Each structure stands twice: as C-alpha cells, then as structure tokens.
Amino acid sequence: MIGRLIALALIALAATTTNVRAQEGERAQMVVELFTSQGCTQCPRANRLLGMFGREDDVLALTFPVGIWDYLGWQDTYARPEYGDRQRAYSRTLRVRGRFTPQLVFNGARQISASDWDQARATYDAQQAEGWPRSAPALSIQRLRNNRVRLTIGAEANAPTADVWLIAYDPGPLTVVVTGGANRNRSVAHYNLVKWIERVDGWDGRSAWYERQRCQPECAVLVQEPNGGRILAAAYTYREGRY
Predict the structure, then answer these.
(1) What is the CATH number of the domain that holds 213?
(2) How many domains does the chain have?
(3) Of the candidates 100, 111, 138, 164, which lies 20 to 30 Å from 85 by C-alpha distance?
(4) How far apart are CA 236 and CA 168, in angstroms?
(5) Binning pLDDT at 50, 70 and 90, where does residue 113 land?
(6) What is the span of the domain harbouring residue 48?
C-alpha cells in the first residue's frame, strides 16, 4: 500500500515538473522589426515606438542595431554584422534604395521610416489588417529546462519554401549612455533587443521539429521566405512583467 502511494506521488510530481519545465510560447499575429543605431538622432524616439508596439497583444517586436553611423564618432555597442545583412536583404526585396535608420519592417512585407509615428502606425494597421498569408503553417515554441526550446512546424501543402530562424532577445529596457557621435551625452534605451539570430534549417512544407539551446532571456522562431522575404509565421517566449 505504501509503495503504491509513493509511486502515485512520484507520477504526480513528474507531471507537475514537466508542466513547469515545458512552457508554451505565444503565436504572433504580427512581427515588427526595427533597424536602429545609437549614432542616429531619430533612433532613441523610434526605439520607444518599438517598445510600444511590443506591448500590444500578440505582437513580436524586435530591435536589430546596425552600425551604419559608426563613422560619426560612436560605435554602436549592440550592432552585429548579421543584423546589417538582414537589413540589406530587406532593402533588396522591398526595393529600398540603400539603408537607413530608423527603419521598421512589418511581417517582412512592408517597410517605412520610424521617424513619423503616424505613418508608422498607419503602415502597422494596414499590415495587421492583411494578416498572415494563407500558406502560413501552424507554429509553436516551447521553453524547456536549462534554457532549451522546442520548435514545432506543422505541414502545409501549399506553402512556399522558407527558412526557419531562431532569435534570442532581451525584453529590456537596456540603456546605453552614448559618449560620442550625434547622440553624445544621451541615454538610449533598447526594447526587445536581439542578442543573436541563427538560421536553423530550410522548410519545404513538411512538418518538422527542432530543439536548440541558449534561449535566454527569451526566444522567437520565424518561418520566412528566403532572402528577406515575407514572414509566414512566428512564435515567441515571453514572461510577463519584463517592462
């Protein structure tokens, strides 16, 4: 009798532990990417706009710092070459002449300057009304123990080929005091700051799942057409109360 009680207790404990360790993420209805720079005078305000988008329901907002203004006397402390590569890919696909900051990209389908909040909001609303393409697959992300995540993509017969991207981000805000360049002596806050981005695999419409490490503090997964194309689906981990 005692043995049976102990066994039942262990099973209950294991079930509880599994529920705690595997936390289901959120499915995004919109992805907003901001390409920003600590050396850009309009960018601190644009960063705040990105933070506002990120507080809306079912929105994955991401900040990608780029170093295109480093030559003005301040090197962006968070910029990475791969973020610049991502912005260049969007420039080619969306037919933008050159690169600029602050730039917003919505679902990989529309872009606009973040300097004008009214225009940025109008573009956001237009993309939100359009929603995901019909070929969007089912997508989920689960946080496991030890900063691991599980990514699951459902089958979609009519989907185009795509890439699977894993992104680690910090909700922040993370503040940097700039001591040189155009923003000298200004404190610049960053929201949902991307820490790294990694291409996990290609996707051909068949169901797939992956497990990866280093999901810290939070992670997001994107299924996106190649070379800066449309985002087909997105999901992300998030814990309430970060900012």
Answers:
(1) 3.40.30.10
(2) 1
(3) 138
(4) 10
(5) very high
(6) 24-236
